Amino acid sequence: MEKVFIQNDLLKVGINIKGAEICSIQANGGKEYMWQADPEFWGRHSCVLFPYIGKVWNDQIKIKNKLYESKQHGFARNLDFETILVNNDQAIFRLNYTESTLNVYPYRFRLEIKYILDEKEVHIIYKVVNLDDQTIHFSLGAHPAFNVPLEEGEKRSDYMLEFEKNEKVESLNIIDGFRDGSSRSVIKNGNQIPITDTLFDEDALIFKEMESAKVHLLNAKKEKVWTFNYSKFSYLGIWSKNQKSPFVCIEPWFGVADTVNADWEFKDKDGVLALDMGKHFTCKHSFKIY
After folding, report:
1. What is the CA radius of gyration of the chain?
2. 3-class DSSP state for residue 267?
3. What is the Cα–Cα distance from 7 to 20, expressed in whole angstroms?
4. pLDDT by residue (tens digit) across 150-171?
5. 170-204 burial, b for 16+ CB within 10 Å, e for fewer?
6. What is the SS3 assignment for 266?
7. Where are the domains of the chain?
8. What pLDDT, in 10s, does the model give residues 40-68?
9. CATH topology of domain 3-289
10. Within its chain, how far is the Cα of 66 from the centroid?
């Protein structure tokens, strides 16, 4: 798969042209922090989710009373982006609407993704531009998977996630990929989630409107391994495939999976954003290695 690399004295980052997804983050002597897409568990690295997030009921979305065939997490992750810029420490990628995208999502848009390195931190900036003659509606999010554990002889369960603030929110329950309206408590001691073998038995953890803007990965010594900053995103997903999959995804979202038996206009779906004609929307998240 075609890819480009950016780097500084502390980080080397690889980005696939397909989906404009990060496929490698190396630091600290070449240690690999990104999941390497082993298909035995999950064959992707860091999907960009656009223009919808999660499963949609009956694999369809309704826009102005017309149904469009739609698959989980949208189509951007499966398309080649145009490479606009690559230099030492930054890269910019662009995806424009096409006749093919209009068949499944009837809006004219431009999606740009910019990666910037700053010492041991990767900043990812998203920009959605409305190229249509009407208001467009969309969801946008990320799905990066990180190697957990990182060292030989360790287990995934040696690690813990810790939020910067105490949290009272519960995780929204998912059944067969859809929300059922219920929730459960998974945060311990106010701000910690031990990564137990059974943590993801009921699918992803999904939190809405958290107090924290950052989550840290701690190792068995309670040392910070990395920090993920998801400030201002509406939802945060945390996921791994099963009890043995050696990775954890941290997923900031503007949008969320449908509810069971959902029957609504796409613009009314939870988390969907509206963007007026001629306007643009930007957001960012970042990943810092220690």
Report:
1. 19
2. helix
3. 16
4. 999 999 999 999 999 999 999 9
5. bbbbbeeebbeeeeeebbeeebbbebeeebbeebb
6. helix
7. 3-289
8. 999 999 999 999 999 999 999 999 999 99
9. Beta-galactosidase; Chain A, domain 5 (2.70.98)
10. 28
